[in-house]
Design a protein that fits this description.
Length: 144
């Protein structure tokens, strides 16, 4: 029996996205959009002297899967480096594409029912794609 694509946990996460306010003057910012469904996620990042995310702000205009993914990102991104976020982005894309194991990021197993629905993968990846780009930009601006 197949698990439902939208379940209570996905809907709960979609309704409780942390850091849902843009940063006033971010060190890095990126917006990603899914051409398939029109979902859009903007992520702002400030990093500390060690290049770790110190602050994050998001504007999320996405389907429930994109919102849930943004929620998972927001819950665990503080303290991560740009490289760690890029690794999570790449591992998520590989796993969704059937080319890798479940990534080591809290909550990704929740998207297992979406694996056969490739049209939904882009919206799941949006927050991580935007965060990886914003964090890389912020890290490049951080004082050495």
């Amino acid at each position: 029996m197949n698990a439902p694509l939208y379940n209570t946990e996905i809907l709960r996460l979609a309704a409780t996205i942390p850091h849902q306010q843009r940063l006033a003057d971010p060190m890095g910012s990126a917006e990603k959009r899914s051409p398939i469904c029109g979902s859009r996620v903007t992520v702002d990042v400030n990093t500390d002297a060690d290049g770790r995310v110190a602050e994050v702000g998001m504007l999320v205009r996405a389907c429930a899967l994109g919102q849930a993914s943004s929620s998972l990102l927001g819950a665990a991104v503080i303290g991560k480096t740009a490289d760690e976020i890029a690794t999570a982005r790449d591992e998520l894309a590989a796993w969704l594409g059937g080319e890798g194991p479940l990534p080591d990021w809290p909550g990704f197993a929740l998207f297992t029912p979406a694996l056969p629905h490739s049209a939904r993968h882009a919206s799941i990846r949006l927050a991580f794609e935007a965060a990886a780009e914003a964090a890389a930009t912020a890290a490049a601006k951080a004082p050495a």
